[in-house]
């Protein structure tokens, strides 16, 4: 098939600036390049770091870049936004889409895949005969979405990263058979323990005998980090219980902090010898930090669709403490994770679960083995294979 892919319109592909959704796109493009399945053209925003990227040498994957960041492009975006106020997304994203469609409609594509942007369909309906496929990693299409019925009806196939997202789509039409779940994957080989860490516990003033928990992700309210700090306060008498907080307030930003992050550090101040904030850590360095931990804690208090932090912790063979929110219960089992309700007892139960694993090293060992086993289900090759098999069903 001849396929066009519309990206988020924010970050470039290949994922030279990061971005989970962009990384997932790289994975299935790598798979397509290796297996030569389809002729794919990716419409991406431009970034100078893509210029010499090896992915551009593929003869089955093609990349069409759109300038959205130069001075002239910024002027044109504002002009476009001035004359197009009633749009589904921010004018900057809609400008990218406008430029992509102008080129895309010149081609004869069999299929157009919209990466986490189902609202693009509003601009595509009636302008192409290609089948429209939505690839959803977030809760972007449900019965409260603008023009939800029109967007839903325009789709030939909707691929979601979790049953949670699939069920949200089905709030528009529960009887539909156009929705399918394809679980995301990661580079499992990157997150294994068969390597020598470049960073050791003593580099962060941690002892070998410490019980180290690790939180990784954006330091924002919905990630449950405040509740985790409150649980640490309940455990303040356990001097060898340490928490490693990896992440910043913003994606890929090591310096800026919002008001929530500042209030979080203020609350953690009395326990500053037990809680270490690293700030932003590059993705390539994450295995070094995960290798220091005894347990991973992902205390999301929102419906996290399918957090990769859970997959990474599993791949490193870590026991997991998390919540029954969003797609998280689909990622783990009772053998490798403790899942909690985010109710009025959440903080107390979080502290109790931490103490349980602290006091039972044999239980941690059993959970670690289960995590290793579970992780094999979520490698990037399996994800890409299942994704293309879903497309073949059309």
The amount of helix comes to: 25-40%
Number of helices: 14
Mean pLDDT: 94
* Major sheet characteristics: 7 strands, parallel
Identify the strand order in the major beta sheet: 3-2-1-4-5-6-7
Uncertain ranges: none
Categorize the overall geometry: globular
Number of E-type strands: 13
The termini sit apart by: 11 Å
Roughly how many Å is the radius of gyration? 22 Å
What class do helices, strands and sheet pairing give? alpha/beta
**Estimated share of beta-strand residues:** 15-25%
Order of secondary-structure elements: EHEEHHEHEHEHEEHEHEHEHEHEHHH
Q: What would you say about this model in short?
A:
By secondary structure, the protein is of the alpha/beta class. Helix content is 36%, strand content 16%.
Write the layout of secondary structure elements.
Elements: E1 2-6, H1 20-35, E2 39-45, E3 61-66, H2 71-83, H3 91-104, E4 111-115, H4 121-124, E5 131-136, H5 148-154, E6 157-160, H6 163-169, E7 179-181, E8 211-216, H7 225-234, E9 241-246, H8 259-268, E10 275-279, H9 286-290, E11 295-298, H10 308-315, E12 320-323, H11 328-331, E13 337-340, H12 346-359, H13 361-375, H14 380-392
Parallel strand pairs: 1-2, 1-4, 2-3, 4-5, 5-6, 6-7, 8-9, 8-11, 9-10, 11-12, 12-13
